[in-house]
Specification:
The N terminus is likely disordered. The protein is mainly beta.
């Protein structure tokens, strides 16, 4: 028996679920969506000082359990519409002052009920944020909707799902905004360039967060065959997904791998692991590849390397199998005289 429990924000303690004497599994899903807003580029930080963030039009009521849940993937797939409607424009959640860090970002402050997005046909009553601040010395306001583009360049509207994090990245302020929050709210055109990064927090097994820094390494463990795997010249043209010798590193700050700190076991077997790159910058995930020499011993060997990002240190273990012993049996036939 699997029981799905929804939390607003807090802890589920001492949970014991028994069905006919059999202890079952408990899956915990945060019932709220979370929104962070970050001035992501130097250009945005230089041009704009974030002073207020106003949330409008979130769902009035929260469903205790999700109506759209994939048991196999353990994921919420769509927003649960409770039929309560969205908050009216006069109801607002306003964040300002010390809630905004260094005029650049607001994190771990904005939580809301899971909210379906009705789309552009219901503008301006879609869930949105109004960003207020100082643009080149002038007070301006900008409306930001939860819109992204797919690989074909077509726009789609994000539902704000439970147990999901929405990171709104401000990339560039193109020009002056509206002179008032209400004008910005009613303005279908925006002069701010953004992108929205969405994480299903149920998938964030390999994401480490320490204060302002976060780091994702996927996957975080490897078991490799004994054969050598070395760079191919010319370089491969294909794009690889994580797995086998391939993985990804992503962070909101510069990250590094120091080969001198790799810990080998046994310590007599060193230097057999190298990397396609040793550092990266904030932004898109970095596609990584591991290179290994052949393991000519009969035992497995391991190497643990550390990815450093800001104050975060995350260890990744690579195991390489050894040779298999081959046993040959000799059968001697003796003829009885």
């Amino acid at each position: 028996m699997a029981v799905h429990s929804s939390l607003s924000g807090g802890e589920l303690k001492n949970a014991v679920i028994v069905n006919n004497g059999v202890l079952g599994e408990v899956y915990i899903h945060r019932a709220w969506a979370k929104i962070d807003v970050i001035l992501y580029t130097d250009a945005a930080k230089n041009d704009f000082k974030l002073q207020t963030v106003t949330l409008r039009h979130w769902q009035k009521e929260m469903a205790l359990l999700p109506a759209h849940y994939d048991e196999t993937k353990e994921k919420v797939t769509d927003a649960t519409d409770t039929g309560s409607g969205l908050m009216e424009a006069t109801t607002q959640a306003i964040y300002s002052g010390t809630e905004i860090d260094n005029d650049e970002k607001i994190e771990y402050k904005i939580y809301l009920n899971e909210t379906p997005n009705p789309g552009i046909n219901h503008f301006p009553e879609m869930p949105c944020l109004i960003l207020g601040g100082e643009y080149k010395g002038q007070t301006c306001y900008y409306r930001v909707d939860f819109i992204s583009k797919n690989t074909n360049g077509e726009e789609f509207y994000h539902d704000l799902l439970r147990n999901h994090q929405y990171e709104l990245r401000i990339l560039e302020i193109l020009t002056d905004g509206s002179s008032s929050e209400e004008d910005a709210y009613n303005n279908v055109l925006t002069s701010i360039e953004t992108e929205i990064i969405v994480w299903n927090e149920g998938d964030m097994k390999n994401i480490i967060i320490d204060g302002e820094y976060w780091l994702r390494v996927d996957p975080a463990q490897f078991t490799l065959a004994r054969e050598a795997h070395q760079p191919i010249v010319p370089a491969r043209a294909e794009t690889y997904s994580p797995g086998d010798y391939f993985f990804q590193i992503e962070s909101n700050t510069n990250w590094t791998i120091d080969p001198a700190t790799v810990v080998y076991s046994p310590d007599s077997e060193t230097g057999w692991l190298t990397f396609s790159r040793l550092s990266g910058t904030p932004g898109a995930p970095a596609d990584m590849e591991l290179y290994v020499t052949e393991n000519n011993t009969t035992g497995q060997r391991t190497a643990t390397f550390t990815v450093a990002a800001g104050t975060i240190r995350f260890a990744v273990t690579v195991t390489q199998t050894g040779k298999q012993m081959t046993w040959i049996k000799h059968w001697i036939w003796m003829e009885r005289k």
